[in-house]
Design goal:
The protein has helices at residues 3-23, 55-64, 69-73, 94-105, 110-128, 165-173; strands spanning 33-39, 49-54, 84-85, 139-148. With 177 residues, the protein is of the alpha+beta class. It has one domain.
């Protein structure tokens, strides 16, 4: 199977499987979800981790941090691990596909490979931002999905690539970006 086909297969797996993956995450009865982060890493560039952003935790973060608050509140690594799911929850074959993709990408220009994986996460986030999540999770009015990575620059506009303009506008109005 070619790399391009594997990426497309993983994209479809994510579009169809992320809702089920987050259903497996146990929430407290009063939790509300303000975001779903789709993290790509050097070792899992298509999808390494799905993290739920919990509103009460984000609210605490907003009280604590002022100088770099945008970076802080969108850093999915600041959420407790119990609000995470791995790519194996997306589909039974996702991890094997990602491993095969990496094998086929060996020797390629890493920046080109990374950009291809980022593009997939942006497309998935954009598509899933148009889905009604209230039947799956208790979500806030400013709920979004976004592509996340270690060097994400929230203040530099990296979030806009993951969501429609109307959702971005809501976040901007609330000073969350």
């Amino acid at each position: 199977m070619k790399k391009e086909q594997l990426l497309e297969d993983m994209k479809q797996d994510m579009i169809h499987g992320i809702k089920n993956a987050v259903k497996a995450i146990k929430l407290d009865s009063d939790d509300e979800v303000c975001y779903i982060s789709l993290l790509g890493t050097d070792y899992e560039p298509v999808l390494g981790l799905i993290t739920l952003g919990i509103k009460s935790i984000r609210d605490e973060m907003l009280q604590e941090e002022e100088s770099h608050k945008h970076w802080y509140i969108w850093n999915s690594g600041e959420m407790p691990a119990r609000y995470q799911a791995g790519p194996e929850k997306v589909s039974a074959t996702f991890e094997a596909k990602q491993t095969k993709f990496l094998e086929l990408s060996e020797g390629d220009d890493w920046e080109v490979t990374w950009e291809s994986c980022q593009k997939v996460r942006f497309e998935v986030a954009n598509q899933l931002n148009s889905v009604d999540w209230s039947d799956t999770l208790p979500v806030t009015a400013d709920f979004v999905l976004y592509s996340d990575w270690e060097a994400i620059d929230v203040d530099g506009g990296d979030l806009i690539k993951s969501m429609p303009a109307d959702k971005f506008h809501v976040l901007k109005q609330q000073s969350l970006i």
